[in-house]
Amino acid sequence: MASSIRVRATSNGDVTEVQTLIQHPMDTGLVRDSKGETIPAHYIQELKFACNGKDVFVANWGTAISKDPYVKFSFKGAKKGDDLTISWTDNKGGSDQITAKIA
Amino acid sequence: MTVHTGPLPTRRLILQGAVTVALIGLGNLPFVPVHAAANDKYPEEAFKLKNEAEAIKALYGKTAEPSDKVKLDAPEIAENGGVVPMAVTTTLDKVTSISFFVAENPNALAASYKFPDGTIPAVANRLKMAKTSNVTAIVEADGKLYSATKEVKVTVGGCGG
């Protein structure tokens, strides 16, 4: 199955810029479907980025993050070719992980 | 159904006792103040609070002061409340976390990001907004909280509107 995570990590000398797009419904638990039944909350709670065995960025999310979340950040201390591991877990125990090479 | 005699009622009593204890335990949980916050665990309690000030207190255990060193980049008007792009940058040193609060959302805390050493204190993401509201960005730097607030007008609701 294709990964739910799409990542672009580009090194610009000292700084690595990371852009991530994740496929996830991010249901708030407040919306009703066409039959009038509440769609239960289903959202990513924690998203972690690790590089060279160290967490470089951690996101804690609530239901107010848009569907198919996007996040961008930058960090220092990595170079081209290093592995960047991205993992998320949601409130229903779902999770996904991907390892990308910094370009 | 058969009526049990002998050792079984004792076991049932024990089980009932265990259930009672479990229920009391669970019932008490929400009233225990949790200030674990910006450290490592997912701040479940802070995300459940409706009020912005309470959510900030639950997450950080202190209050923030406005600062022009925190820059919140958000649109004046969002045509679609379901996807409102926002970014925070700061010139502050020793930043350990950045959080987004939307005052008028059902739950004020939207996102909280942790910044280990070496990560540049800036983040961009997309939030849902139920209606026109003040958005507050909080930056935790060197143990203190700094904030920037901006009003974003929403013309179409994002949370089931």
TrEMBL record, chain A:
Annotated source species: Bradyrhizobium manausense
Transmembrane segments: none
InterPro entries linked: Ig-like_fold (IPR013783), Ig_E-set (IPR014756), SoxZ (IPR030995), SoxZ_dom (IPR014880)
One Pfam family named in its UniProt record: SoxZ
Gene3D superfamilies xref list: Immunoglobulins (2.60.40.10)
Domain Sulphur oxidation protein SoxZ: start-end pairs: 6-99
Protein name: Thiosulfate oxidation carrier complex protein SoxZ
From TrEMBL, chain B:
Protein name: Thiosulfate oxidation carrier protein SoxY
Domain Ig-like SoxY: 57-159
Signal peptide: none
Record organism: Bradyrhizobium manausense
Domain of life of the native organism: Bacteria
Listed InterPro entries: SoxY, SoxY_sf, Sulphur_oxidation_SoxY
Residues that span the membrane, as ranges: none
